[in-house]
Each structure stands twice: as C-alpha cells, then as structure tokens.
Amino acid sequence: MTLQPLAPGAATSALPPLAVQGLAFSWPGGKQALQGCELQIPRPGLWMLVGSNGSGKSTLLRLIAGLLQPCGGAIHTGLKPALVFQNPDHQLLLPSCASDLQLGLPPGLPAAQRLARVEMALEQVGLAGLGGRPIHTLSGGQKQRLAIAGALATDAQLLLLDEPTALLDPTSQQEVIQLIRRLCSREQAPLTALWITHRLEELDHCDGAARMAAGRIGPWQSGAALRVGLTPLPGGRAER
C-alpha cells in the first residue's frame, strides 16, 4: 500500500504525526528488508532509531518519504515529509545556496514570496546572508544545514534524517543536532523528526529512542535507557 495521508490538520489533534502499520518491503532480488514493521511517533519532537547496517533503517525512511513503495502495510501521516541524506552532496544540486533552495519551491509562487521563504529557511539554520554563496565553498556542516534548510523551505513538517552527522567533524555534529533539537522544541509549529544513527551519544538529545533489527522496531525508551547495555555500533556507508 502507498502512503495514506490523514485529513488536513489531523496530526495536530489526537492523531499521531506518523504511524506505520505492518509495513513490508523486499528488494527486486527477493531480499526482505522489512516485514510487519510497526512504528508510531506519538507527538512532535526528535525521535531516534538505532541499529546496525542491514537493519532496515534507511529503507524505512525512504518508504516514509515515498521514494520506495511498500509491498504491504500502510504509512499514515498528516505531515509533509522531507528526507535529509547522510551526504548532503547527494541532494544539493545547484551552484548557490539560494538557487538550490529555490529548486524545491512551488513553481507558481510569486517571486517576493520565494525570496522570503528562502531567506527565512537560511536564517533558521544559521546561514542568513549566504544566499549567493557558492555551495562548493561551504563546510560539510554548512552543507548539511543547507540540506535541512531545503526541507524547511518546502514547508516539510516531518524531517527524515539518515545519519545526518556521519560525515561531519565533532563541532559540526553538535551544530546539526542542536539545530534539529531547536526546530523540534519551538513553541510555534514544532517539527517532528525521525533520525537514524550509529552514534549512541546522540541519544542524549532525543525525546525517545528505539532499537531496530532485522526490519522490526522495538518500543520507545529514553535515550539513556536504550544506551544501557548497548555497545558502540559500527558506522560506515549507509545501509539499505
């Protein structure tokens, strides 16, 4: 089944921002990635999934984003999703910061509104005034924040973050995680973020964390509780 949107505004009432029910997915060669996967995000905030390569985390995000079609089950959300990749170079396509953000805006939007939306998105991620800056001159952390700005410019309310700090230095890692924390904690229209990670120390910043293994997700726990008994997980390239 494909993603099934809820009625407009439903996610802001009693219904959860995201619910995944009995989700199944297999690759064309027959390898099963998800079977009977269940997930419910109860409220806006920063929610993290931890799991080793091959556990199905990245596949789940791509299904929620609509880049893959499930073999069974359903995804229910009233929020617009946006996927942020591990490597921002895989999604930053145009030469300058502003031109790249313009790419994701509705084509019929008046020029003044397009400019205002781009400037607001850059300001929210700490890149105000850098609209004309060539992307190739940005640091890795700035590129990742620009990729997040691209999601904000399209009015996405559900951020799907695929190990967004994996390629960053420690300072940039903290900048990105604190940025998402602020966006998910703001009083007006807080975002919902589903963040997958290998870095157990990142669990200190989330509203809830769960372990994913063999295409299934365990119950939500506090980040501190999930860290107990877990050994550091191997990083590396993004898994499918």
In short:
The chain is 27% helix and 23% strand. With 240 residues, the protein is of the alpha/beta class.
Main sheet attributes: strand count, strand direction, barrel closure: 6 strands, mixed
The largest sheet has its strands arranged as: 6-7-8-4-9-10
The CATH architecture of the largest domain can be given as: 3-Layer(aba) Sandwich
In total, the number of domains comes to: 2
What sequence of helices (H) and strands (E) makes up the elements? EEEEHEEHHHEHEEEH
The CATH homologous superfamily name of the largest domain equals P-loop containing nucleotide triphosphate hydrolases
N- to C-terminal distance = 20 Å
Tell how many strands the DSSP assignment holds.
10
**CATH topology of the largest domain, anyone?**
Rossmann fold
How many DSSP helices? 6
Please give the CATH class of the largest domain: Alpha Beta
Instruction: Work out the strand percent.
Output: 15-25%
**How much helicity do the residues have?**
25-40%
Q: How would you sum up the global shape? A: globular
* Unreliable sequence segments: 1-13
Could you characterize the architecture of this molecule?
With 240 residues, the chain is an alpha/beta fold. The chain has 2 domains: 148 residues, P-loop containing nucleotide triphosphate hydrolases (Rossmann fold, 3-Layer(aba) Sandwich), CATH 3.40.50; 60 residues, no CATH class. Helix content is 27%, strand content 23%. The protein is built from 6 helices and 10 strands; from the N terminus they run E-E-E-E-H-E-E-H-H-H-E-H-E-E-E-H. Strands 6-7-8-4-9-10 form a 6-stranded mixed sheet, sandwiched between helices. A 4-stranded mixed sheet has the order 1-5-2-3, with helices on one face. Strand 9 and strand 10 form a beta hairpin. The longest helix is centred in the last third of the chain and has 16 residues. The radius of gyration is 17 Å and the shape is globular. It starts with a strand and ends in a 13-residue tail after the last helix.
